[in-house]
Design goal:
Elements lengths: L2 E3 H7 L5 H9 L3 E3 L2 E2 L6 E3 L5 E3 L2 E2 L7 E6 L28 E2 L8 E7 L2 H8 L7 E9 L5 H7 L13 E7 L3 E8 L6 H8 L2 E11 L2 E2 L9 E3 L2 H10 L6
Parallel strand pairs: 9-13
Antiparallel strand pairs: 1-4, 2-3, 2-5, 5-6, 7-9, 7-15, 8-9, 10-12, 10-13, 11-12, 13-14
Length: 245
């Protein structure tokens, strides 16, 4: 995890010259993770610390936020030159340090957020934030009776604790095949597949259709990506609990 002097970080973020930001620090106008900081030599994490100036959260220059339509067959990992990864699709992207927010299984498709905004990544994945993720699921078999009610109550999938309440909407169920939408507020290992299996069926197709309340752009083909709009970035930050000034 890389660290940088606070005064340099502020200057790079466009808050002012090094001498100007030192004055801002002296006057208590700078906060790190909500706490006033006055020492310019303070080291901060470029990936996880949230810096604000007069109450407004600052972003490092060169930040990017991409909505990526992940295809099946590639893993959610950094480029390694051996196995195809989601980051191979961003080989031509101009920004540095891009990384996926969370992960999707190799055989899962859909919305994957790619960014170099470390604080946003951290806040979105924090367990206490309960950021919503919605999946379209096709499964072989039939779910047990009153599945919607049972999912809302939390489901035992073999972990120490039941799942958090999840919203299930059955789109089709004909005895051998089931189609459903499932909205989660956590991200346990293989959670969708395990919940569906615990309910009596086996996932055959899985696609994340929204993340943090943002729907996957229908115009994005598999393997394509686009930058988030300013409004979409603000919306995601609000979902993550990063309050703008």
């Amino acid at each position: 995890m890389s660290q940088m002097r606070l005064d340099k970080w502020l200057a790079d973020a466009g808050a002012g010259t090094r001498s100007q930001v030192k004055e801002y620090l002296k006057k208590g106008r700078i906060r790190v993770n909500g706490e006033t900081v006055k020492k310019p030599e303070t080291k901060i994490s470029e990936e996880t610390d949230e810096v604000s100036f007069d109450g407004k959260i600052l972003s490092r220059p060169g930040l990017a936020w991409y909505m990526f339509h992940k295809p099946a067959g590639c893993i959610t990992a950094a480029r390694n030159g051996r196995t195809e990864t989601v980051m191979d699709f961003f080989a031509e992207a101009p920004e540095k340090d891009l990384a996926p927010v969370g992960r999707l299984d190799k055989d899962t498709e859909g919305f994957l957020l790619i960014t170099n905004d470390g604080p946003l990544n951290h806040f979105l994945l924090a367990p206490g934030r309960h950021v919503e993720k919605t999946y379209y699921v096709r499964a072989a078999g039939t779910l047990f009776p009153e599945a919607e009610k049972r999912f809302l109550e939390g489901l035992d999938i073999g972990d120490e604790k039941p799942t958090l309440p999840a919203e299930l909407k059955i789109l089709k169920q004909d005895g051998t095949d089931t189609e459903l939408l499932l909205t989660l507020k956590e991200g346990r290992f293989h959670q969708v597949k395990r919940m569906v299996q615990a309910a009596g069926a086996e996932v055959t197709y899985l696609k994340r259709i929204s993340f943090g309340g943002l729907p996957l752009d229908e115009d994005l083909e598999k393997g394509e990506y686009r930058s988030l709009t300013e409004e979409e970035v603000k919306f995601l930050k609000a979902q993550a609990g990063m309050k703008e000034g």
